[in-house]
């Protein structure tokens, strides 16, 4: 019910720049996820939007209205935190009614009943309405906390790692439920997390944040398939992308050191790309699912290697493959491909799915016309 | 180098039975993971192996020797709590040498031992660096080096990476597995995270409420879970469960009635036979299927359940599509290119060679 626009936003704590000249547009009804490691500035950004912190510089707009000087209440946002803040002695119903009974709102009784029953239905907590919140499980409590945010129909939902304290199974369930809730409500969601799976699975768009700076904004598909730099490539995706030190040699990349090198043939497009490179030193980024393993050599970018060790993911194995002590990479083996540790196999690099990064700047090589917009 | 055998171990804390008649054999050089939710008895088991706790009943055998009554210090086992807790002011060398310097071992011997450990761990080139100059994987190696110079028979690790960020944890998992491949020391690792257990363990030991649920390779416990607990705990996303009961049709064939979908589905003959042999017609059961064994179709099909698209989770390598069957959520793993609209009608079917049927009453797999 609102778009949120951050313009040149900066927040410092002493010498630390928590948020550094951030520009970000969150569209109306969008599920936007800010993703980054601990200390990246995610929570500070969220608190600035909520009005819990004052920026040192920059402006915050809700629907073209500058809200810098508005209090939390006037901004009309709802916050959901990692730790649920419920009134323990109240029942679920009382917790849900509470925001509606405030002096500002003074909602009529029938209206309150209608809203509470509607919201509890959406969140599947109808059967819990008369229970005290102290008697609820973690997942149930988090649903009530979200419910309390929903009843107010705020302009923007702000969520700070709301699933972190739930166990793995419940987190999976809540991911789907939150994404669906967002669709059903048609509200703007601003969600921060360090977990790339949450970002990828729920976000319409993701902003990757590190050290107070946004490195890339895009749909899950864009950040996964066109990472702008090494940081984004590594942060998004699991198992993590392979990043191999390489040197440009004409239409090839030479990977590895001394005599144990392999030569990857570049695609036509990549030949053009490396032509624009400032230095010969690059990283080849290739995701484990884009290395195809086989028993026989298959194609020009197929290399002999040995199985160093395996990691099971249940449905399939991650094979850690070794060409030399310095040249180790990971490939996903299809469910039917069984290889033993120490066995010699071939790894086929699917080059048109790979990424090339400048070794110095760690930026993705792009033709100038193709530079991705931030 | 150690083989550890637990025989009928019982440990009580007051009225609580923390570990209930546990039998377990840990082979030399294996990486064994004790996995379960909090309170399952995994940490208590580890502490009994180390000698920090003593069992009320049963025996602990280390390399053929009964060590049940031996103190921790006399067992030659290294207990590592947090792998990244290094002394920041000391170099990697100083950190590794620490247990020996405190014992006032001769300098020349310390030097020899540290270098030997560093060679094994492939960290000779970083011995002069301080922890803050080291990458995460190297820090872990230094921490293990510190344990290694004591020449333990086995490593015991208790949730060593549990508090780290998701991304860093993934890196650490690979590093630890690589390390184990290099040094081949018997390792017992405790975690509540099934991803850690699956990706590192040679053998995974699943526990719940003090009771051993299943022991097996990651592949065994993933594909052939013995009960609902293991099936639910292993896998991400977890196994799908649908309530059902077997029904005999007019021709005598056994079919499954899926309760929430109000649909009959056909099952293979070998499973029909098991149901008949166990006299389980009309018994309450749970049909278990992995998300990768569920097929999604956008046309009418035979032997399929009708539903609609509830939500799509894009994960890069693949998508998880959530469907609702009555009140139950069913997840399907698809290629990243499958992106139907929310609400699209569809049919789901199961790879019948991969289904598991559980007896709802006992929770046990009948297959």
Task: Indicate the topology.
The complex is a heterodimer of chains A (374) and B (367).
Chain A: E1 4-13, E2 16-26, E3 31-35, H1 42-50, E4 57-62, E5 65-66, H2 72-75, E6 77-80, H3 92-97, H4 109-122, H5 138-150, E7 156-160, H6 168-185, E8 188-193, H7 196-202, E9 205-210, E10 213-218, H8 220-225, H9 230-235, E11 242-249, E12 252-255, E13 262-265, H10 268-275, E14 281-286, E15 291-294, E16 302-312, E17 317-324, E18 327-333, E19 344-349, E20 355-358
Parallel strand pairs in A: 3-8, 3-9, 6-7, 7-8
Antiparallel strand pairs in A: 1-2, 1-4, 4-5, 9-10, 11-12, 11-14, 12-13, 14-20, 15-19, 16-17, 16-19, 17-18
Chain B: E1 4-13, E2 16-26, E3 31-35, H1 42-50, E4 57-62, E5 65-66, E6 77-80, H2 92-102, H3 107-121, H4 136-148, E7 154-158, H5 166-183, E8 186-191, H6 194-200, E9 203-208, E10 211-216, H7 218-223, H8 228-233, E11 240-248, E12 254-258, E13 263-266, H9 269-277, E14 285-289, E15 294-297, E16 305-314, E17 319-325, E18 328-334, E19 345-350, E20 356-359
Parallel strand pairs in B: 3-8, 3-9, 6-7, 7-8
Antiparallel strand pairs in B: 1-2, 1-4, 4-5, 9-10, 11-12, 11-14, 12-13, 14-20, 15-19, 16-17, 16-19, 17-18
Helix pairs in contact in B: 2-3, 2-4, 3-4, 4-5
């Amino acid at each position: 019910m609102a778009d949120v626009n951050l313009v040149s936003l900066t927040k410092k704590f002493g010498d630390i720049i928590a948020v550094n000249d951030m520009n970000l547009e969150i569209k109306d009804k969008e599920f936007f996820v800010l993703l980054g490691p601990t200390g990246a500035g995610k929570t500070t950004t969220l608190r600035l939007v909520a009005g819990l912190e004052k920026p040192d510089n920059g402006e915050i707009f809700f629907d073209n209205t500058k809200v810098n000087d508005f209090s939390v209440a006037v901004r009309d946002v709802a916050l959901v935190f990692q730790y649920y803040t419920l009134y323990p002695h109240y029942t679920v119903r009382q917790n849900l009614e509470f925001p509606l009974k405030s002096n500002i709102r003074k909602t009529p009784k029938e209206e309150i009943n209608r809203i509470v029953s509607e919201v509890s239905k959406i969140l599947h907590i109808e059967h819990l309405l008369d229970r005290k919140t102290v008697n609820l499980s973690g997942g149930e409590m988090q649903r009530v906390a979200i419910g309390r945010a929903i009843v107010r129909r705020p302009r923007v939902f702000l969520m700070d790692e709301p699933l972190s304290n739930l166990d793995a199974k419940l987190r999976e369930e809540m991911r789907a439920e939150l994404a669906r809730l967002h669709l059903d409500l048609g509200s703007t969601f601003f969600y921060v997390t360090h977990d790339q799976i949450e970002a990828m699975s729920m976000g319409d768009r993701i902003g990757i944040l590190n050290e107070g700076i946004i490195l890339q904004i895009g749909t899950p598909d864009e950040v996964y398939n066109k990472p702008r730099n090494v940081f984004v490539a590594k942060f998004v995706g699991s198992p993590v992308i392979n990043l191999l030190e390489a040197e440009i040699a004409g239409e090839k990349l030479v990977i590895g050191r001394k005599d144990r090198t392999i030569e990857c043939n570049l695609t036509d497009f990549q030949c053009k790309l490396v032509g624009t490179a400032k230095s010969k030193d690059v990283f080849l980024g290739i995701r484990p699912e884009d290395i195809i393993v086989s028993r026989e050599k298959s194609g020009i970018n197929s290399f002999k290697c040995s199985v160093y060790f395996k990691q099971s993911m249940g449905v399939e194995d991650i094979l850690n493959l070794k060409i030399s002590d310095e040249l180790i990479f990971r490939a996903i083996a299809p469910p039917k491909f069984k290889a033993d540790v120490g066995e010699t196999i071939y790894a086929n690099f699917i080059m048109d799915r790979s990424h090339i990064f400048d070794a110095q700047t760690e930026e993705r090589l792009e033709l100038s016309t193709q530079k991705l917009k931030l | 180098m150690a083989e550890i055998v637990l025989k009928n171990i019982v440990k009580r804390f007051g009225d609580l039975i923390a570990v209930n008649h546990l039998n377990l054999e840990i082979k030399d050089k294996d990486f064994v993971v004790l996995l379960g939710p909090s309170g399952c008895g995994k940490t208590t088991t580890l502490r009994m192996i180390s000698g920090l706790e003593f069992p009320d009943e049963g025996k602990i055998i280390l390399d053929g020797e009964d060590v049940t009554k031996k103190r921790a210090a006399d067992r030659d086992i290294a207990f590592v709590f947090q792998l990244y807790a290094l002394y920041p002011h000391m170099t990697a060398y100083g950190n590794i040498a620490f247990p020996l310097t405190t014992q006032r071992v001769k300098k020349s011997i310390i030097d020899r031992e540290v270098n030997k450990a560093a060679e094994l761990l492939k960290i000779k080139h970083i011995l002069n660096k301080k922890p803050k100059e080291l990458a995460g994987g190297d820090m872990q190696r230094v921490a293990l080096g510190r344990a290694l110079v004591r020449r333990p028979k086995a490593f015991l690790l208790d949730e060593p990476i549990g508090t780290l960020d998701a991304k860093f944890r993934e890196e650490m998992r690979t590093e630890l597995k690589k390390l184990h491949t290099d040094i081949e020391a018997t390792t017992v690792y405790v975690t509540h995270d099934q991803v850690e257990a699956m990706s590192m363990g040679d053998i995974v030991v699943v526990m719940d409420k003090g009771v051993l649920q299943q022991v097996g390779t990651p592949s065994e416990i993933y594909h052939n879970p013995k009960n609902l607990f293991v099936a639910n705990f292993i896998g991400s996303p977890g196994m799908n469960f649908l309530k059902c009961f077997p029904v005999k049709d007019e021709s005598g064939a056994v079919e499954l009635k899926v309760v929430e979908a109000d649909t009959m589905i056909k099952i293979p003959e070998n499973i029909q036979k098991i149901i008949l042999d166990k006299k389980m017609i009309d018994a309450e059961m749970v049909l278990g299927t992995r998300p990768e064994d569920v097929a999604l179709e956008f046309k009418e099909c035979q032997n399929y359940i009708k539903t609609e698209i509830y939500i799509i989770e894009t994960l890069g390598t693949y998508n998880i599509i959530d469907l609702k069957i009555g009140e139950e959520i069913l997840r399907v793993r698809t290629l990243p290119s499958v992106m139907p609209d929310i609400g699209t009608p569809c049919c789901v079917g199961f790879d019948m060679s991969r289904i598991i049927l559980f007896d709802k009453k006992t929770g046990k797999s009948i297959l």
